[in-house]
Amino acid sequence: MPRPSLKEKIIAAGVNTLHERGFAAAGIREITTDAGVPQGCFTNHFKSKEAFAVTILDRYHENTQAIMDRTLRDESRAPAQRLRAYFDEITTWLEAAGWRYGCLVGNMSLEMPEHSEILREHLVDVCRSLTQSFASTVRAAQAAGEVRNDLDADDVATFLLASWEGAMMRMKVDRSPKPIEQFKRVLFATIIMNCDPQ
């Protein structure tokens, strides 16, 4: 197999670096050290730290979409079970990380510099994509009688993403799974029906 390019090494390591250190705290030296590449490589491949963050968000979003392919888009499961499978798979990752890091999209949204329109617009696009994926599954669940039909699917999807991000934020503060467990209990007791609680 060909060796990964230096740019790919920076991107692959950069997802973890920004997750663990945060956008503001991660300097170019930390980013390249974590990637195991010379510091000069960064400016060879990225015009700015903002451009790097956009690339990292894209990679993180690709990883999230892969999880959604295995869960939300798995039509062998009932729609409500797809939603549970998605949240359960993310919960497994959060547990492996010691309940410390949360979601990179949420973290970046909080840390985004006020003047960074490029980063803000990219976060809007990523959040829109995530919401659309939830909305598609919610519509399928409504058609199957698993989600209340008196609720707008886009509203439910927006609520899901906002509540999930909030639960992960509180999880990071508490370093505890309790906010995640509370989110899932309320979600599957109120909005989503015909899905046995775990």
UniProtKB/TrEMBL annotation:
Q: Which domain of life is it from?
A: Bacteria
Alphabetic keyword roster: DNA-binding, Plasmid, Transcription, Transcription regulation
- DNA bind region: 27-46
Q: Tell me the ranges covered by the HTH tetR-type domain, including all copies.
A: 4-64
Output one GO MF annotation.
DNA binding
Q: Does the keyword Nucleotidyltransferase apply?
A: no
Question: Which InterPro entries would you find in this protein's record?
Answer: Homeodomain-like_sf (IPR009057), HTH_TetR (IPR001647), Tet_transcr_reg_TetR-rel_C_sf (IPR036271), TetR_C (IPR011075)
Q: What is this protein called?
A: Transcriptional regulator, TetR family
What is the organism lineage in this UniProt record? Bacteria, Pseudomonadati, Pseudomonadota, Alphaproteobacteria, Hyphomicrobiales
